[in-house]
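Inputs:
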Amino acid sequence: MTPLALLLTLSSVVFVLGLFAVLVRRNAILILVGIELMLNAGNLNFIAFWRYGPPDPELTGPIFVLFAIAIAAAEAAVGLAIILMVFRHTRSTDLNKLDSLHG
Amino acid sequence: MVEALHSHLPALLWWVPLLPLIAGGVIAFLPNRWGRFASKLALAALGVSCLISLGALACSLAPVGGKPLVASAVPWFTFGDSSVRVGLLLDPMSAGMGAMVTFVALWIFLFSVGYMDKEVRFGRFFGFLSLFCGAMLMVVYANSLLLLFLAWELVGLASYLLIGFYFEKPAAAAAAQKAFITTRVGDMAFFLGMIWLYRQTGTLLFFDEGRGLLESGALASLAGATTAGGLTVSAAASLLLLAGAMGKSGQVPLHTWLPDAMEGPTPVSALIHAATMVAAGVFLVARTHPLFAQGGETGIALTACAWIGAITALYAALSAMAQSDIKRILAYSTVSQLGFMMVALGTGGVAAAMFHLIAHAFFKALLFLSAGSVIHGCHEEQDIRNMGGLRHAMPKTFLAYAIGMMALSGFPFVFSGFWSKEAILHSAGHWPGGKGPFLLAATAALLTAFYMTRQALLVFFGKPRVPGVSHPHESPTVMIVPLYVLAAGAILLSLIGTPFWPWFEQWLHGETASFHAGALGEEGAIGLLTLSLVLVLVGVGASSVVYRNVSRDSRAPDPLSEKLGPLWRFLERAMGFDALYETILIGPLSVLADAVDALERRVLVPLMGFGESCAKRCGRITDTTDEAGLNDGFDGLCAGLQRRAQSASDTQTGRPQAYLRSIGLGMSVLFVLYLWLRA
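Outputs:
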């Protein structure tokens, strides 16, 4: 296998793990962790394609990744703040209990 | 300073009536517990009014040759081409009257602070008083008959509210209604007269640069036109206005409300009976006197005025003799004094009438407030047969009362009442229309001295007759001070109205006053002066002799009642006017009312019941069709919709992961479809 194929496989595995966590986990914090995993799988793809793809002197891939990390950090902060408020309100981080929007 | 005021007068003058009116309006919105504040507000508003009107009086002191100082007219509303204009008028008559009204009312307000002290509706009382004063000042300063009429009705309303202030008492409520309805009879005539004048002249302004109602052009047109029976329009309109004045000023036969108005609080009696309301009628006639005088000195309007006044003066003096309620005696004496003023107006003595009006306002307010002080001190006792010997217990009140009583009786030389009454007798004595009014008025003057002496003897002299009234107390300072101010006015006013220096009369006519030492020698003036003197002395003397040995027992009959017998009882019932009205007016009216009541109960109510049952039956039919037809169909539709909506909303679980799964499933399906279709 080429290094690119190996890296793409790794990132797929990481992405699926993240998706699994988001769909199955009940704890809101772990769901947030899952989202981070999926984001980083994407980042890994960017780097891999930049490193093993056609030569690119303008560093598009790493810059894209830096932006993605910055946005992910902001998003995690907002997400954690929401979870904190929810926890204060309901004394729980179990997402299944937060179903007051049901029809 | 007077010159500086002069240019602002037309604008400032509006504030004189408006300030008390505004204060009254504000107080109407204040809660009861703000009573102290309300009284201060009313006093402040009236105080400022008083200052302005005194300033206006100062401005009008300089003679300007018979023309009014201020005669403003502003458009009020317009219809078509014509507009109705109202304005204020400042001439010596309104300046003197306005200053008197504000000044006397101010002291009455102050007295009320003490007198109404324990009243629950303390603030409301001051609101009514303010409304009353504002309306009255509007009457005084109005330059338009319409504005005057408007304020006139407001005065009537305020007096209704004030007389009925103790509305829990049935007598007070009845008296308030009586006052309102009786004066309404006169007001109707006033209203008709006003409309007639407007039709004939097209204006209701008194002075309007030559086009006003009281100026030569309109007067000539009124005197020129004749109506039914050869009566000129000016005379007919004057008679109608006179009827209005009779209602307000309590002239026979519209006087019956005035003694009953005593049911109101005593300061109200003072305000209504002395300074303001009853004076409004006399003031109206004095104001429109040029109109009355169109028929000549012995024209029908002036003759009617003189005779009605004379009859009223004598009638009320006779009735006052036999009363035993301290305030009722004063009420009848007010009616009598108003009669005097009417006599003066009818015989051409406008100045004499106005002088008597102002002097009377001072000493009658003084008498009523003293009577209030007596009643206050005797624990709400009003029957003079139960009083006695109060001069030891209430020396200050006694002094004030004595001054007022002597001024009213016309004690010679230092009291204003003597000179004003003398002026009236002088005017009546020289009237070319006959000696009747003069003789009646002279008799009334004698009786005045008689009944006032009787009252003073019974209240203040002798020994206390009833133990319950034997612990009277002097009134607080806030009630005594106004008494002395008014007493000073009752004495000092005599300075400006003597025949030697008739300042008031000449001021009113716009001339400069001059000292006139030889006045006694003219036209039998000395004879009249002597006659006045003799009348007073005979009245007082006779009364002193009759009541010298006033019995110690209050239940002993009046010395005169034994001698006069049925005549006394006739006088006691005020010559049966109330009974007469009861028989000829109230009796038939109540029969009519009963008939209408029976009609309603027997015919209209069953008829309405039938209609009601028809309507009910109709309603039942529509109700049934509604239930079965409309409601069930519509409800069924709604229920079906709701069931479907419920099942759709069940898929909304509210759990984010369930949504994510749906999204994931959807994505997978789309992905598979994409691959499949691409292949």
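Remarks. The two ends of chain B are 112 Å apart (CA to CA). The mean pLDDT of chain B is 82.
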